[in-house]
Amino acid sequence: SAPINTTIGFVRAASSSSSSSLSIQYELYGDTSKTFYLNSSTGELVLLNSLDYETITMYKLTIEARISSTIAPCFSEINIHVLNTNDNPPDINLMFYPSVLFEGNLIKYDLNANSTLLATINLKDLDESTTNLSLSINDTEHFQIQFVRQIKNGLITESIYILSTKNNSQLIQQDYYYLSLNSCDNDQPALWTNRSYEFHLKPNENLCYFNQTNFILDIKENLSNRTLILNKITNEFCQNMFYSIDDQDNFYIDSQLGDLYTSTIFNREERSIYKLNIKAIDQYNKEIKTQLIIRILDEAGHIPFLIQKKLKMNRKEFSSIDLFNSTYCHYQTIIYDYFQLLSNCTLVKLTLPVQGKYLFYIQLNQKYNYEDTFLLELTTNHTEIFIYAFLQSQWMIIIPIGLGIFIILIFIICAAMIIRKRRYNKLHHNKQKSSLSSSSLSHSDDNVHNKYDAISTLSKLKVHDDHELSPSPISAAIYLVQKSASSSPTRDDEGYSGSSDASENPLPSDTTIIAVNQLVEQYHIHEFRTRESIASSTYEVPKRINTSRVSPDVSLV
């Protein structure tokens, strides 16, 4: 505990009488930490830095004394021993348990217990002389400490205490607390250390929990929908909770009360074990979880144990399947003539089974009343199904008969078309001959009428003596039309007299025709085409004709 700049002592070196007039110089070696200072002229040794007995207890230094470079120097060692004093106060380390320490400085305690363990307190003193560390607290009404043990490890003395609450039922009266820890090393001189803590104490929400961590509930298969199967499974400390489940298709839970109901009609052959995860959240968004296993019992009360209840696969791909991890399955030699059930709950194939559904009853020998069902559905590929269904159905006979009838009808239709084509070609040939004779006659008539300028302006003259359109039995309807330049090729119906069975295409506008009595009348001009016409023919509307230039023997209608 010597202060800095304390003079430790003086170093003296003596010289012979011949060199007594020369001054002696001193130099210090071995002080790597620069703890000491040696005056080179006077030999005074001074303390530069503080000493710590617990770090270094003795310093070994070397001092050199010399007069000149021509005279050999002399050396001496000096040992400086550090004496121990009680200079280190105790160190306090408080470690709260994670189970009670929440966010910030919030501490949770168990309201249902008298005391809750909060933290471990470690006291440590580095002085060798210290042998008895003590600890005290300010609030003994709400807190208490318990001494565990004290350890002496070389120079270090360590003591361990446990901090806990006291009278938990009274802690709810307030939530803010101040705790002061005071430790003394009980040495000479006595040194003290104080640590103060401020925190909030609240009842632990973990007081709200499910009555069990895992539940197993057995219910009958024939229960109706919305049947109450389980009441609230949390304790009385759970208030204002919101309950939810992960399987809402088969079950329903009241989100406020926590009561559990069924929401479907169960089929034990489809599924017999349900794992339901239940979650409850309080108003502080703190949640607790548990898992509920629900087993569906049959009418005889058999307990199920199979998770996988059915399998569908191709009958040629199936060889075996492990139904349950157990060696207590009831051995069954032959089932449905195709399968065998081993004692390790493995279902194996003996021969190739046929397509269909197979229901197996699995029992456990050393488990009383444990029996479950397994459904195996074996299928075939689409090609096999189609061939098998075709061979077994009446279409095997109907399809060939239908194909034969269809081929016969095709032959009949083709023969009729050939015969009709031949008849048509023959009639067409005769019609062409008639058309040629009519054309020559028309040519001679045109020469007679060339003196009439109005008639000569018409390139074609067609006569249709339809009595239905005639105004009187003695007169005939005459149609004057002029074929356009883009008309179709020469038609074989020109000069045709009588009714025509050819198609009629009315012109898009009315045509003005001048009658004999100088009256203008409106008529539609029709085009008559033969069956051989390919391109559509268009006729121009005839121009108005000056009746004074028309022969009075011509009656224009």
From TrEMBL:
Protein name: Cadherin domain-containing protein
PANTHER family named among the record's database cross-references: CADHERIN 96CB, ISOFORM D-RELATED, CADHERIN-87A
CDD domains assigned: Cadherin_repeat
Residue spans crossing the bilayer: 395-419
Membrane topology qualifier: Single-pass membrane protein
Gene Ontology CC: plasma membrane
Keywords: Calcium, Glycoprotein, Membrane, Transmembrane, Transmembrane helix
Pfam families to which the protein is assigned, alphabetical: Cadherin
Lineage: Eukaryota, Metazoa, Spiralia, Gnathifera, Rotifera
Subcellular localization, as worded in the UniProt entry: Membrane
GO MF terms, alphabetically ordered: calcium ion binding
Species, as recorded: Adineta steineri
Biased composition, class Polar residues, residue ranges: 497-508
Domain Cadherin: 1-92, 243-306
UniProt-annotated stretches for the region Disordered: 487-508
Gene Ontology biological process: homophilic cell adhesion via plasma membrane adhesion molecules
